[in-house]
Design brief:
The complex is a heterodimer of chains A (433) and B (347). Chain A is built from twelve helices and 19 strands. With 433 residues, chain A is of the alpha/beta class. In chain A, the strands form four sheets. In chain A, strands 1, 2, 3, 4, 5, 17, 18 and 19 form an eight-stranded mixed sheet that branches. In chain A, strand 9, helix 3 and strand 10 form a beta-alpha-beta unit. In chain B, the strands form two sheets. Chain B has a five-stranded parallel sheet. Chain B has a four-stranded parallel sheet with strand order 2-1-3-4, sandwiched between helices. The radius of gyration of chain B is 20 Å and the shape is globular. With 347 residues, chain B is α/β, with parallel strands linked by helices. Classes of the chains: A alpha/beta (433), B alpha/beta (347).
Chain lengths: 433, 347
């Protein structure tokens, strides 16, 4: 593998606080050197000119659905990671709601096999309970040994107090967080969007804010009961102010709670459902404007630990159904950076280094992905080069994902990925179109 | 789409404001929601209904001679289906009825594919009833044909609101052009299971645009507070909630009773005897609180539950007139749908 010398770029590395012009040398799949422009000389290296570009640690998405095993018609590990690379990501954490559910070391290892042709690094997340049925715990130790970085029953929240408590304790022992999809499904039967006047007008049953916040509060209560265990709860795709406030309060009380927010929850509100647009259907649903604003606020004030896309590919025929029958979820890997820059950096003036941190350093830290989300010398050579000023039109048809279910088709985004390097290999290069 | 937009929304929007491919594929003579109809559209439909109703049957029979209208019904229906069918046939059209119990729908065929099949078989207009809110958009987008919404889930029942409007105008002896003040000073109470009622939604989304004050009445499980917030942006009237039926009646010129939709209740515990005590339209209550009001009911009625026979069959009731008006309104909607298709002009 030829060394790569990235010159003339503006290097942002939140892990070290670096935010200055620097050259970067990658060799043997690792970060080999970081130095002032022109200082690094390396004969024989492939030189990437990063003039006008930000050079940052490759992005890390801790919440994606790659659909393999079992649903290759929606996405495969190969197509999903290719989409991730195009979006600037070099690490993705794959949710276990595959078919079969990833509840065993065998499936975890299958996902990590080179035969999957992953373009970037995949970190599987194991099921918290067998078959994600919410009844019996899986074997966290062996899942972790096989490569799992967390456990969750994403999409099927763990409702029982006892089993959730057991999960938190067992996960803490295995050194992993429990990721909870916070939805009290006893309150959301038949619901397909956020509760409120929009849902009422459309004749759709609505999911209340309480269905999310009450489960977050329950989980936090369990965490407090087993305080000595130092268990780590991570709240997936948080979408309401009430739930965010619960997380804030728990942290003030010294509990180990982290949370992520998806781009669609800080960019869109429930009005995007329009006339039953199934590309605006996801779970948790797009919320009221006040909740969207609360997500922005939580991101700006540091209450939110990570931006995660909840990339959820579905085939066209599945989304072309009656709204209530269509599956939840949208793709997100290729629009995340452009949305985050357009909204957080441009509109809300968040420093670019913090945007990078929320999409890379912090999520890597949340799930303990060692060496990811950093450009420290010796860490894996995961790098993204992007033009923070470039405005571009996102086209679903140009997506590398096998599925095109995005509400952002045709949107003008800001911040375009120029190249993505995974462990020293260029895995994506912008064609310039 | 004139669907109600809330202000604010600082969320960024796409540069291009052109309708999406799917939205633009909707045939302009479709009626998916009353919110899509401008007041001139509504007036045109009412006028057409008058015209078609008065026309000698032999002449009317030539209007849509041998044109093909499909009725696609995923839910049972008496009034709506029959009156659409009679309406189409009385203008000479051929109708085919496809229902979920006797078709490939049972085998799992999607709405999109069913629509494409009907189109390939020569359907020029599809009248859809579906248990899913919003299904008419999917059908209209998939087929490009004019689609008439004959009731979609809990969402809307536009032809019912139009026939209710015709009935109201007749009873109030109002004629002339429809304006934002046509129903100024008129209060209509809709009482019962508002939450599950597409009739309530269509009326609440239409009548306030003519100046009417719509009072929604029912217990909280059947009438969430959010219901008061759905008034269209161009409403000159209003939507209010009043939990006390008697107080609502006192203010009303028109009272529309709704059935409890047992099939959609899904676990709501409702004390029916208490419900009757509070919300039933019975002779004593109507005599005391609304002796002059016109009583409407979209059907099906559950006599002895939300309404008693004395009221339903009494002189204040205009329930049969509603059914009768259904045929005229539906003739107008079908004629409008096919007329545009044939002439190729977007109204």
């Amino acid at each position: 593998m030829k060394p790569i010398l990235i010159r003339n770029g503006h290097l942002i590395d939140p892990s070290s606080g670096m935010d200055s012009p620097r050259d970067l040398l990658l060799a043997d799949g690792k970060v080999a050197a970081v130095d002032k422009p022109g200082k690094i000389k390396q004969a024989g290296a492939e030189v990437l000119d990063a003039r006008g570009l930000v050079v940052a640690p490759g992005l890390v998405d801790i919440h994606v659905h790659l659909r393999e095993p079992g649903q290759g018609y929606k996405e495969t590990i190969a197509t999903g990671t290719a989409a991730a690379a195009a979006g600037g990501f070099t690490s993705v954490c794959a949710m276990p709601n595959t078919i079969p559910v990833n509840d065993s070391p065998e499936i975890t290892r299958w996902m990590l096999s080179p035969e999957r042709n992953a373009a970037i690094h995949v970190f599987p997340i194991g099921a918290a309970t067998r078959g994600s049925m919410g009844e019996a715990l899986t074997e966290y130790g062996s899942l972790h040994a096989a490569g799992a970085v967390a456990v969750t029953d994403d999409g099927k929240p763990i409702l029982g107090d006892r089993i959730m408590r057991e999960a938190l304790i067992a996960a803490a022992r295995a050194g992993m967080p429990v990721i909870q999809h916070a939805e009290d499904t006893r309150l959301t039967g038949g619901c397909s969007m956020n509760a409120g006047p929009v849902a009422f007008r459309l004749g759709l049953r609505g999911m209340t804010v309480e269905a999310e916040s009450s489960l977050v509060e329950r989980d936090i209560r369990l965490l407090a009961e087993i305080r000595d265990v130092r268990a780590h709860l991570h709240v997936a795709h948080l979408s309401t102010k009430a739930a965010l406030n619960a997380v804030r309060k728990a942290r003030r009380n010294g509990l180990r709670v982290t949370c992520e927010v998806a781009p669609h929850h800080f960019v869109l509100n429930e009005e995007a459902v329009g006339n039953y647009n199934t590309y605006a259907k996801m779970n948790p649903p797009l919320r009221a404007e006040a909740d969207r604003e609360a997500m922005i606020e939580g991101i700006l004030d540091g209450s939110v630990d990570a931006i995660a896309t909840d990339h959820a590919p579905h085939a066209a025929h599945e989304k072309q159904q009656e709204f209530e029958r269509a599956p939840n979820g949208i793709t997100g890997l290729e629009s995340a950076l452009g949305l985050a820059i357009a909204v957080l950096h441009v509109k809300h003036r968040m420093p670019l280094s913090r945007v990078v941190s929320l999409l890379s350093t912090q999520p890597a830290h949340v799930l303990g992905l060692k060496g990811r989300g950093t450009l420290a010398v010796g860490s894996p050579a995961d790098v993204v080069l992007f033009d923070p000023l470039k405005k571009w039109v996102f086209r679903a048809t140009a997506s590398r994902s096998r599925s095109k279910n995005t509400p952002f088709d045709g949107w003008t985004l800001q911040g375009k990925v120029h190249a993505t390097i995974s462990e020293g290999q260029v895995v994506y290069r912008d064609s310039g179109k | 789409m004139p669907a109600k937009k809330k202000v604010s929304s600082a969320a960024p929007r796409p540069k291009a404001t052109a309708p999406t491919v799917a939205e633009s594929a909707i045939h302009p003579a479709s009626v998916l929601s009353v919110t899509q109809l401008s007041l001139p559209d509504v007036q045109h439909i009412l006028k057409l209904a008058d015209e078609l109703e008065k026309e000698p049957p032999a002449r009317r029979n030539q209007r849509l001679f041998k044109r093909r209208v499909s009725l696609l019904f995923y839910e049972s229906s008496t009034r709506t289906r029959t009156s659409f069918e009679i309406a189409a046939k009385s203008m000479g059209a051929d109708t085919t009825l496809v229902s979920d119990k006797s078709s490939s729908i049972e085998k799992g065929e999607s709405l999109k594919d069913t629509g494409l099949t009907l189109r390939a078989l020569g359907a020029e207009c599809i009248i859809l009833r579906s248990p899913y809110s919003g299904a008419p958009w999917l059908l209209a987008q998939s087929t490009g044909l004019p689609v008439l919404n004959a009731g979609d889930g809990m969402h809307e029942h536009p032809s019912q609101a139009l026939l209710d409007l015709r009935t109201i105008l007749q009873r109030l002896k109002k004629s002339g052009p429809l304006t934002p003040t046509t129903l100024k000073g008129i209060t209509l109470t809709i009482c019962g299971d508002i939450f599950h009622s597409r009739v309530a939604r269509s009326n609440a989304l239409l009548l306030p645009r003519l100046g009417a004050r719509v009072i929604l009445c029912g217990p909280p499980p059947l009438l969430p507070e959010a219901a008061a917030q759905i008034a269209p942006a161009d409403a000159t009237g209003s939507i209010q909630i009043e939990r006390d039926f008697n107080r609502a009646l006192e203010q009303s010129n028109i009272v529309m009773m709704l059935r409890i939709q047992a099939e959609r209740l899904a676990g709501l515990a409702l004390d029916l005897s208490e419900y009757k005590a509070r919300y039933q339209a019975n002779a004593e209550r109507i005599a005391q609180y609304a002796p002059q009001a016109v009583i409407l009911h979209p059907g099906p009625m559950i006599r002895g539950m939300e309404i008693t026979s004395e009221v339903a069959d009494g002189p204040q009731a205009a329930i049969e007139q509603q059914v009768h008006n259904g045929v005229a309104i539906r003739m107008a909607l079908i004629y409008r749908a096919l007329g545009v298709a044939k002439a190729g002009r977007a109204r």
